[in-house]
Structure prediction request, 1275 residues.
Amino acid sequence: MDNRYDLRSQQDVDGNAYAALPGTTPGEFVPHNTTPMKSNLAPGREMAGCHPSRWIYELVNNDFTTCDIFERARHAKLDTPFDWQHEHRLIINGNQSFSTSTARILSSVCLDCHFHFVFKMAWEESHCDEICSPKQSKWPMRDAQFPWHHLVWAGSESDSIISKDTSKYYPLLARENFVCSAPPCTFQVTLEVSEPRMPSWWINLLLDSDAILKVLHAAKEQEPARYEAASDDWAYQAPLNLNTYLKNLLEAANPEDVRSISKRNKRFAVLFGPRCFGIFRQLEFSEQTDEVDGVDEGSFTPSSPSPPGGPCGATELGTYRAYLEDIRAEVQCLIHKAGPTAELCTPVLHADLQCQEVANLTGNALVNIQRYKLLGVLPNQPKEVIVNAYKRQWELLPSKRRDMIEALVAIANDLNDDQLSDYAMTQSSIFESQLQQQSTNDDDGLVSQALTFLGLQPPNNYPSDALIQAFRKKIAQDPGDATGAKSMLLLIAQASTDDTYQATLLMEADAKMSLATSKVILGLVGSSGFGPEALDAAKAKVEASKSKEEKATYLDAMEAIADHTNSTDLKWAINEMRQQNGIVVPNGSGNLSSPNRPVNYELPVGLENIGNTCYLNSLLQYLFTVKPVRDIALNYESFKLDLNDDSIKQRLLGGNKMQMDRGEAVVAQAFAQELSELFENLKTSDQVATRPSQRLANAVLLSTHTLLNDSKQATEPSSTPKPPPLPARPSPAPPTQSLGDVEMGNATEIPMPESTETASTVSSQTLVEQGDDDSDRSYEKVEKAPVSHETQIVDSVIEVVGGEDFTEEVHRDPKNCGPATTVVAVDGTIDVPEQQSVDVNMVDAEEPQTVDQKVLNALEHQKRSSGTDQQDVEEVMGSILNRLQAAIHPSSVDESTGIQLEKIMETFFVTTINYTKKFDERVYQQEISFDRSITAFPAPEGTCSLYDALGRNFDQQIIEESKLSRYTAIKTLPPVLHVLIQRSQSMGSKNGNPVGIPETLYLDRYMDAPQDSPEFQQRVENWMTANRISDIKSQKTAVELNPPSGDFLQMYNATEVVNPVPPTPTNPAEGESTEDPLLSAEENWEFDGPVEDDFLLISPPRVEAPIAETPFLPSGVVPTETEVREMMKEELREREEALEKHYSGLKNIPYRLHAVICHRGHLTSGHYWVWIHDFEQNVWRKYNDSNVEANPSTDEVLAALSTSGEPYFLCYVRDNDKDAYVDVPKRLVPPAPEVEGELAKDADGDIEVTNRDPAPQPKTGNEDLPPPYLEQQMD
Prediction:
């Protein structure tokens, strides 16, 4: 059978999509839904739109193609503190963002110019299921596919309404409306831009360091003792203090909690004082004046804002609270400009608009080229995005359709995408033929330029054969420019009026190279065949090529010959050369698919991707090497749990001893059976890769609740539409600032278009957002709010309730904004409340299905969102282990706890103890948990070791706000230990900092020890040493960022003498201020820190008698500075050596690295693969879906893994038990086929016994090349 893949045959299958102009495909029905705002797009009114990613790009760069908001702003006289004509860097503003089932608001402010941008998104609930969704993306694009929004300007708000809505709290400048032009989509965006809340004079006062220094020096002269500890750093802290005032005001729970600010407070008097009183008056703080001996000892009392009144607790725009939040956001912008970096919200905006941000646009000259503006796209976007925008613009701009086709062709040429080029040229051909406007005129000179490019002189009087010969000659001379030559030939074809002439040129310019062209390129014209010599010559051309484009052209030519001769060996050689040179196999290539690729029986069987399942494939390959799991799968009948009601009821899962229902048991057994079949295939397959069943994937990736409900919905469609996907909730930071151990990962998947830059184009949608604690705990019940379409962008409130076995997470309910909870076992089993019963009431006329029938039927037929959903590896690992646990009977029961043990718990589950105590307590409280992995947190910046990363989880943590001390220790270790490297951060970003991965991990330092033992005391000392090392490193980094200042300080000359101040009487007279000695110490000011000393004191402060100061000239600063730097280096070295010396003796519990699951990409997109160590052969193998490759160098593999942010899930095995628990099974070599006829006999008539050698491996040397291919075979 001929299994070659021919691009043209695929085009025939999808011919309607290629051979029809937008909106003319027969048989495709496109619904049209309208809205009041969308009705502005009336027929006859041409208005261009753009893809959301371009819309965002034009917004932040003040350059909308159609909307004139920025043009109006340039002509307006805006009194703003900063220039606004720059690339806006937007950050989220306050508590003003929220989402409901029909709306979404994202409030932001520009970090640089302080303009406010509010994005109000809405859609009709009755048409939620018709909203554009990236899940509809599929090549070729059809008229009824609407993967991405296409935003069109629908007009501005009138000046009268703008004036009416403008206020001090909300100085609105413009309100612009945009709608999605896709016919069925009702999505719309309203952009509101408002002026900065802080006028220029505010900012000048806050940043006037010279004025603040002058006040500070005067205060020191007048009250030297009181201001003895004040430093010149105060001059830069006015924004910090104002930010803290506003923070405390906004966070005050009751009006009674609002505290006054004393005008006599040291910092307030210096940083603000009378010159800034106007700021606090405009902030509507109540002023009290209290003159005492000519000194105003009054105060400012803030006005308490009303509680948030928006949906789900969000702050309403235009209110006093929103005004305070806006002011605080602008103050924070000033702070961020001076030092701390801010995290931008543009990724959130891209997620809200369901598009992907295009990287590296700065300085890209193509961005503002007319063809990209015309189609409303950005350079380097996928072909699906380009065609989607082309189809939308086709409807919006009928008068520019010819220009759009030309733009489409040019962009395809820019992208060097053959499929897009074919599509573009086909569209061009159809358009010209339908309009009957074909001519050979060359008014714009493009045909002349194309002829010149091919080495021919204009005009075009050449026959098609002459053009084709020139085309082939051009590619042979310059193989790196083959794509350009094809474009020129296509352009000449487009200008022709002769159908035959045009068709001939189009066939030659096809993405799949013709045999005649390949022979010209490889220099085989007139040769007698393609034998070893020809192959050597072709290889030499590839090796001598200077660019990948040249190499790709030669390989394409070789592949055309391989396709024509149907040579498997030649195809294999080409595939190897592509991999060696990092060249992706082109779409439409005739290269080998898994069934036809030569098999190397020394390598394990790969797993084909069945729809974004690279994460599942990685786990299955790893678990196949774990003997207990393999034993369960291949001998399942020995472990199988009986499916009778008593057995199911008595089976208690995990450390929490959770019961399961019958549906879960049926799904678990189906999964175990499918896993058994897959593992058998991995042993016996004679192919390069095998294919896991969809039934297996559904059993792992879909919950039992989903399977049961969807089996019902298959016959009874849901009447409740779903809103468009919203951005994933970010995972919390390492557990250093909160009491709870549980990380709540309420992640909502963001469907995004498949990336063309990831390692696997079918595996580009990945969530890596689940924390360790929300999925590992098997002893707790975690109360988790059900997934809602109304998600407030605030952190969940977590509190421990009901003793040590329960944890509750409280969320706002989307309907009444009250708390709503659901009980979920942390090891993955769901405790469904009664009101969420999955029982189905069937119509009397129908025979009801049993639970078994429903589940098994759903496993067979349920689709996982068209195969585009992906889950996090740790989550899927938990699902697999939970299914296996539910599928088998327990092997024993722990008498003390009643926990049912089986091979899964005995193999993978680690027991940890969480110790917590208050500062005033002596005894730690304990919480024991069974986890299926332990968590490691990468460093916030730079590289760290795995020990340091684990230390952030296990080492002592001081939680000042809660006055708690806590640490975690390991009580018992399993034979196989999983380590999750938690890379998710706030705002949906990924921590890509490398973690040094050791081949052998020693866990002695994390083991539990009695608190009165020497081991624990040494551990406490180690914690203190580690903290000191961290402090020194931070200080050292800060010092190294600044140049030495000793020379400057020595030039300082203290010329002013501080006059002694008469001592203050011991008993001050009435009206004189005194200061409490406890309050005279220097305040500790930090960003968002407390401001206790800034508020009105009940007792007047006492001023202590200052001590006279004498002037001095600094001397010896340079050597002192050098000495301090050296002391820091020396102390750091000594402490690190001491810590390492102690840890070097803790090597009694070694674990060897067995597997590393890696992820490349972002939190919401990317690709997974796994490295597995074969201890027997001492070789590492990389399993990348269907491809498996080996690397014998452990040092090389670990060096690569330890210097990138790709490792995500580490699998260690106890060193002494590695042979008993893990190995890589050798695949069975199929027997050689029997010889037809009689058995071969030797000379004396006996039957000749021959060795059954393995199947032949791919040829690499010349001596193993296929026989020459005769010349007539290639004609």
In short: The chain has a mean pLDDT of 75. Residues 512-598+1258-1275 form one domain.
